[in-house]
């Protein structure tokens, strides 16, 4: 049955991952189950893209550690992986640019695929191309759809002044798509309803309800670590070991960027870090 | 300093059908809390899955529940699985399981302290505290004390008074209220440790089984090794969930002195 009506999807999650927790990983699993359950999508890949150090968030430890922890955490997954492009940029990169970059990668990968297959499938493809003439997706028909995966808090952050450029939100949701994981207490539908822009693109916003509430947050993990409490079973064992081995997350590391203005605010308001 | 602390073993009784990350998290939270009292040194944790005779709906065979718990705890250096309770032909009262383990722990302790005496030629100071065993339970557990016919009064007395409880609460005043509403529990309040869990995590074995029946992912809710085991043995299907359906829980029949209801009923 799997044919042309099923769209391949790549899920992209942007964030601090400071550190990555089981909750981040659960979001991918829940999103995949939900999208595939609609019968319209097949999720082929998940990408974790930790933010760069230039983001200047309080307590944000070096990207190399955050990337490595995410890599360790996804070792056991056969579909989620980490990408360090965003984190290796010298300055903070707008999420819209990160999405664009990854979409570009997907297009390139597909073109390379096509080159390899050219001889064998040239004829078949020609036929399919003809069949699909007139479809708006015809050019990148084989390129998976890229969707940004996020929690309900990100959706609501669209309303915070100077955190997002409006045209970026339009691009992310209108051109790509959003998968938003929500838990009891949040009402993203109401939030979408109250924003004309979000409402316009509501069909590109997939709201997924998480039935089993799981509030593991990276903030909680860091707090537990500062207080010498156990963090086991909140994140994968290899990450727990990595944190111990490198002695990450102390009272000191939490003070990093303490008085610095978050990069997006700096960029959009012209504020400086004094 | 540390030697003056009371050595403490935590015992968790339950179905573990299947064991989840949240079960193991309870042990971590309890240990941290008991250490922070300054009075206890947690020296071990025991997971004791209930026997098949419990008669709970959807209860997988004990051998599977034991195997999964062992896989899950392979990486723990302080929590282990004990098969004694699960191997009893009939359901065992929690207090009986506690007595069994406490006897075992005391014997071990006497052997160790005895050896110390032989090696050093010294008698250990009298102040050296003997080990304790406490029951580790989740927030809803205290509420089971008031279900008619589930507990015998003298058993509640012994569990709370002689041994003690460490109860992980999910916020709200539910455990405090349960203690308040029971005269027995109130009397032993100083022996009931309520631990607040700040991260809401509603992972339950019931939710895990539900997700498995519906072919949804349970990754990161239970360890990978347990997921593999479940697939290998095809556990937790719609069929398995119907097991024991309509059966009265064994505690209710055993303690009421009623004839045991057949599982085929």
From TrEMBL, chain A:
Q: Which InterPro entries match?
A: Cyt_trans-like, Euk_NMN_adenylyltrnsfrase, NadD/NMNAT, NMNAT_euk, Rossmann-like_a/b/a_fold
Q: State which Enzyme Commission number(s) the record gives.
A: 2.7.7.1, 2.7.7.18
Catalysed reaction(s) here are: nicotinate beta-D-ribonucleotide + ATP + H(+) = deamido-NAD(+) + diphosphate; beta-nicotinamide D-ribonucleotide + ATP + H(+) = diphosphate + NAD(+)
Question: Taking every annotated instance into account, which residue ranges of this chain make up the domain Cytidyltransferase-like?
Answer: 12-223
A GO molecular function term, named singly, is:
nicotinate-nucleotide adenylyltransferase activity
| Keyword line | ATP-binding, Magnesium, NAD, Nucleotide-binding, Nucleotidyltransferase, Nucleus, Phosphoprotein, Pyridine nucleotide biosynthesis, Transferase, Zinc
Q: List localization entries.
A: Nucleus
Cofactor or coenzyme needed: Zn(2+); Mg(2+)
Q: Pathway involvement?
A: Cofactor biosynthesis; NAD(+) biosynthesis; NAD(+) from nicotinamide D-ribonucleotide: step 1/1; Cofactor biosynthesis; NAD(+) biosynthesis; deamido-NAD(+) from nicotinate D-ribonucleotide: step 1/1
Of the GO CC terms on this record, one is: nucleus
Alphabetical GO biological process terms = NAD+ biosynthetic process
SUPFAM superfamilies associated with the record:
Nucleotidylyl transferase
* Top EC class of this enzyme: transferase
Q: How does it assemble?
A: Homohexamer. Interacts with ADPRT/PARP1.
Protein family: Belongs to the eukaryotic NMN adenylyltransferase family.
The protein here is known as Nicotinamide-nucleotide adenylyltransferase
In its UniProt entry, the species of origin is given as: Myripristis murdjan (pinecone soldierfish)
Recorded name of the encoding gene = NMNAT1
TrEMBL record, chain B:
Which residue numbers delimit the Cytidyltransferase-like domain?
A: 11-210
What's the cofactor? Mg(2+); Zn(2+)
Which Gene Ontology cellular component terms are annotated? mitochondrion; nucleus
State the protein's name: Nicotinamide-nucleotide adenylyltransferase
> Which Pfam families does the annotation name?
CTP_transf_like
Identify the coding gene: NMNAT3
Q: How does it assemble?
A: Homohexamer. Interacts with ADPRT/PARP1.
Record flagged with keyword Magnesium: yes
Originating species: Myripristis murdjan (pinecone soldierfish)
In its UniProt record, which GO terms are filed under biological process?
NAD+ biosynthetic process
